[in-house]
Amino acid sequence: MNYGKPVRSSLQNLSISYEFALAIGNSLNLSEMLHEVIHTMVHKTNAHRGIIWVKNGEQELQPVASAGINMGDVLTQSGIMGLQNVFNQILKSQQFVLRYKDDDDFLQYCPVLTEKEESVLIVPVTNVAILHLVYASREIVDTTLANLLASLSKKLSVAIGACTAHENSIKEIQVREKAEKELRKKTEQLISSEKELQRLYEESEQARKSLLSILEDVAQKEKALKESESKLNSILSSIDDTVLVFDQEGRFITPKHSLKGQLYTTPEKFIGKKPSEVMPSHLNDIFLDAFDKIMKGQVAEYDYWLKIKGKTLWFSVKHSPRFIDGELMGSVAVVRDITERKKAEEALRESEEKYRNIIENIQDVFYRSDMQGNLVMMSPSGIKLLGYDSIEDIVGLNAAKTLYAVPEERDEFLKVLGKKGVVNDYETTLKKTDGTLVPVRMSSHFYLDKSGNPLGVEGLLSDLTERKAAEESVRESEEKLRMITASANDTIIMMDHEGTISYWNKAAERMFGYTEEEVIGKDLHEILVPERFHADFFKGFEGFKVTGQGAALGKPLELDAVGKGGKEFPVEVSLSAVKLKGRWNAIGLLRDITERKAAEAEIKKKADELEKFNRLAVGRELKMIKLKKEINALLEGLGKEPGYKIVGEP
Known about the structure:
By secondary structure, the protein is of the alpha+beta class. The protein contains 23 helices and 20 strands. The radius of gyration is 46 Å and the shape is elongated. The model is unreliable at 1-7 (pLDDT under 50).
């Protein structure tokens, strides 16, 4: 069911995409990222409330982040929690769902909680999550917004995967660090035991029994150490990170990893060698800097890329020194595959670059100012339009004081904006650096912070200089035409495509007795045409509306017309067709031929009398001559040639 299309400019869609990209890149903490995303979506799309549902370890959808409704309320509302089956069907279809309150199945997708629910939009995020937005107005949301959010959902899916992987890695590292700490503790205990054994052995032979006991204890500790090492290896093999161990010289000792397919080469080829001997040369400087920090007891963190099996993979490394009893014994590098994160960062960079290119190349002017009216951003087209040399010359200027021809007009503009929240096609006048006035049309809205507070005004403005000049030219032409038609002696009437009168000059008022106010918008045929001709006129007009043609066009016709008092009189009509805005209109020039018709009737009467006299008496020449003279006089009065030649007269 369509309740009207919301007013949403391309700039607003770009703003939604931009803010969404910022939200998903704000944090690698899943809960924080989703909280930022849902608040951004609710705010930017003017939603009443919103919830993001994410599959848990049991593949069940659970609410993770909400805006406009407390998460505790979400978990206690049976109507909301009962949406699981509906959401699973949407995930299976991978199609968004848009419903309005009047739809029969509206409650299936939107349980009523506040009586403000008018429309609902549900967008699947691949097969891992659901974006659930509820609106208090049916005019806000449409398929354009739904398609925009559906296209953004793929990026949200990537972000969810990245956050989940990040959190899993942190947990695994914590487990690994705990195991390393336990291993270090046992190693130190073993070393302490060995020293104690040596001391006892050197003191006295009599301590042999004690030594044997200690050796037995040492054997047990060695066994425990091996078991601990085995457990650590098992832990390291179960995580997604690759762990590389180096000796004091920076040589590989052993790798502990689970992603064997992502090693640059096999372990046998790099054990005992330095990175510079087995890794690509573009990594030499990176490893030199890293080992320089290791020798200073510092932790090195760095990223690098490798070509593995024809694919470019990115890795992030945390490289830490390895101490035993305070002595540097080498280092340990934890290597993590960050290819997907790099792709997400590149996608964000491309999105920002695309947004920047649009701003820089847009024909209209994009601007942004703070709440005090100080400009903080303007597209190059605006800098050129207003006569400035660079962005630095215009940023920081107060728009009302510097750019408005009448500074008070900005106050009026802000009043309108404050009432509606958005202004479309607002016309005002700016001035260039040289004082030249520039008429413009603005479409603007407030841009907000994360809490929904207005930070300033942004929008688009268009130069109306050429359009205003064209409008003035048209106005002058229309005024000239109006003066010509108003002063014309002939009646001029115009009829639109619906058969109603759209123009009526002064001569028409004199001819028919109606003023312009009485006839404009009225059906021409019903007012001016005798009723007996209505059927024929309406039939012919139906064809004219389609083709712009008709039997009455292009030639003068004599017809009967009806004046205001209901009296009929003869008129001569010349009709022509003109197409306006794709519709056929008719223009008629009319003359009252009552006097001409009377004269023609008198001529016919005299001619009939003459013919009668010709038949009755040839001898009545004198009377015939008199009648001929009278007829000739009438013809001359009409501007026509005499009809009879009088013998004896020149």
